[in-house]
Amino acid sequence: MIRDIPILILHGWNLSAEKFAPLVNELRIKGFNAQASDLPGFGTSPKPKNPLTLSDYVRYVDKYVKSKNWSEIVIIGHSFGGRLAIKLASQNPKFLKALILSGAPGYNPVPKLKILFFLSLAKLGNAIFALPILKNFSTLSRHFLYRAAQATDFYNTDKNMRDTFKNIVKEELVDYMAQIKVPTLLIWGENDLIVPVSIAKKMSKVIPNAKLTVIPDARHGAPWTHPKEFVESVIKFLDKI
After folding, report:
1. Are 101 and 85 in contact (CB under 8 A)?
2. Domain limits at 152?
3. Residues 132 and 190 in one domain
4. Has residue 39 got a pLDDT over 70?
5. Pairing verdict, β 184-189 and 96-102
């Protein structure tokens, strides 16, 4: 039965497994073997000694699944965890039974010009705050500089994780999405301002046979703010596989 297959939840950037406790609990109430894992650099996982790439995270998940001796799993990928899940699914691992994405920027919702500005801003910040007169104001000043650029996810990490973030956002996923062969469901918050529903609609046309479900009044955090509605969509999807 599909409910006997483990469900692994991959969290978003600057989040951890703990954030998804409402979703894990709701899935378990419905009889699923669900769990979330802290990805490298987040939650209780140690910070990496060097910057990571999306491929590094894919290898981590692959090893994690094999360490659990799971022959089949369903993956739920949220936001950054969804980007990771897309690349993993594109490699068609034998253990992947189905894929569920939520708030995952398969198409980066941030215009390339803004990304270039953002990465330039990071370099500019390093140069500006290296000046002797500003060294004592470095931490606080950087915070406001990055905040002004709406880059708090980037600021709230150490250097290796900031470089990891750069690696993640620069990688294009369109070709990966087209290579996915497992049944795929996209569950989106109607009012997701970080990765709008318009992005999900584009993704659903690229991923073969993908289905899209929109949760009314939900935002980017739909998995934990609307766990009951989220799980209802999961059940309807998995029961048809």
Report:
1. yes
2. 112-166
3. no
4. yes
5. parallel
- Give yes or no for residue 48 having a pLDDT over 60: yes
| 98 and 205 fall within a common domain | yes
Measured CA distances, 173 to 54, 148, 193, 199 (Å): 11, 28, 20, 13
Element (H, E) at 123: helix 112-128
Q: Are residues 180 and 159 in the same domain?
A: no
Please tell me whether residues 26 and 93 are part of one structural domain.
yes
Write down the pTM of the prediction: 0.83
Tell me how long the chain is. 241
Q: Tell me which residue has tokens 């992947």.
A: 96
User: Which of 7, 18, 19, 11 shows the shortest CA–CA distance to 225?
Assistant: 19
Please indicate, yes or no, whether residues 6 and 61 belong to a single structural domain of this protein. Answer: yes
Total domains in the fold of the chain: 2
Residue 241, pLDDT score:
87
Clarify whether residues 66 and 82 are in a common domain. Answer: yes
Residue 132's Cβ-count burial label (10 Å; 0-12, 13-18, 19+) is exposed
Token pair for 68: 């659990």
* pLDDT > 70? residue 113: no
* 45 in the same domain as 138: no
In this structure, what token pair is assigned to residue 192? Answer: 């997701």
